[in-house]
Write a structure and sequence with these properties.
eight-stranded antiparallel sheet, seven-stranded antiparallel sheet, elongated
């Protein structure tokens, strides 16, 4: 009783098949959202009947994954048997299992080398975004809101924010797209990026500490350039400094965090200097409005 299955077959010439069966119990299937209505799963014997297949006497391998909260009983994709196909076949199914039956051969577990030791984020990091496939994600950036991907346009390869309207979300995430990079424990650093701005806003920021289902912009400093010829600097939601600047399409935004001293630059010219101790350490960040906004020549230097 309970569970589900799906059958996978070639689009043409049905001479192979794969059957995946799951018997996960309610308590091992709960997701954060939405809530999961009650249901029951019990050990069971099932019979499958094949129709319109020419697979009689073909060998079928049975692979099993044991899930559940008892770690001592867990197993992942291990071969547990093989049988010859007839028009029907029977299986005994236990709970909290995933069974994979297939006429295909050559299956095996994946492998990997040694896991690298934990280490600090590089003190000096550069990325011009030139060495990535198109539509891929840039290394080390952790997107919180929006979609950040490698784009090829009139400026060459850049990292572009590509979502044009706020999504329907299930939690209180950021009001505007934002992506993090670096080490959350870093206190003092320089961060800069070239921005290509035709519409909306581009942001370079730092000392962010909150992501996920929170408004990340509330947890750090944001230096925002607006295509309508202005800039603003925020500590969380508080506007600290603002000014005007002629926005001509591409500019370099840069910030220096040195203790409570914060410096802001546009195209190498200092536009503000202030002291603020609201946030003491955190990730560097790039952000934008819900527009196509491109970023290039990113740098992050801690000291």
């Amino acid at each position: 009783m309970g569970g589900s299955y799906v059958t996978l077959v070639p689009e043409k010439n049905i001479d192979d098949f794969t059957l995946v069966i799951e018997t996960l119990t309610h308590d091992n299937s709960i997701c954060i959202r939405p809530s999961l209505p009650p249901y029951n799963v019990a050990p069971q014997h099932v019979t499958f009947q094949l129709e319109n297949f020419n697979l009689k006497n073909k060998a079928v391998s049975v692979w099993k994954t044991q899930l559940g909260k008892d770690v001592s009983k867990q197993m992942f994709f291990e071969k547990v048997g093989e049988f010859k196909l007839n028009d029907t076949f029977n299986l005994k199914l236990e709970v909290d299992q995933v069974y994979t039956l297939t006429t295909l051969t050559g299956q095996k577990k994946g492998s990997h080398g040694p896991v690298p030791a934990k280490r600090q984020f590089p003190a000096k990091y550069r990325d011009d975004f030139q060495n990535y496939p198109l539509s891929s994600e840039a290394r080390f950036f952790a997107d919180q809101t929006g979609s950040w991907e490698i784009y090829q346009g009139s400026h060459g390869k850049t990292m572009r924010q590509s979502v044009l309207q706020p999504p329907i979300t299930w939690c209180g995430e950021s009001k505007m797209p934002i992506t993090f990079i670096g080490d959350v424990s870093t206190k003092n650093f320089n961060v800069s990026s070239k921005v290509f701005l035709q519409k909306g806003q581009a942001m370079v920021g730092g000392r962010f500490t909150q992501g996920g289902c929170t408004d990340s912009y509330k947890s750090g400093y944001s230096f925002i350039l607006d295509a309508k010829n202005s800039w603003e600097f925020y500590a969380g939601e508080k506007l600290v400094k603002s000014g005007s600047v002629r926005v001509t399409g591409s500019h370099v935004l840069a910030l220096t965090f040195d203790g409570s001293l914060i410096l802001g630059y546009i195209d190498g010219s200092l536009v503000f200097e202030l002291r603020d101790a609201t946030f003491g350490s955190g990730w560097a960040a790039l952000g934008s409005s819900y527009d196509y906004v491109e970023f290039g020549n990113f740098s992050l230097d801690s000291f």
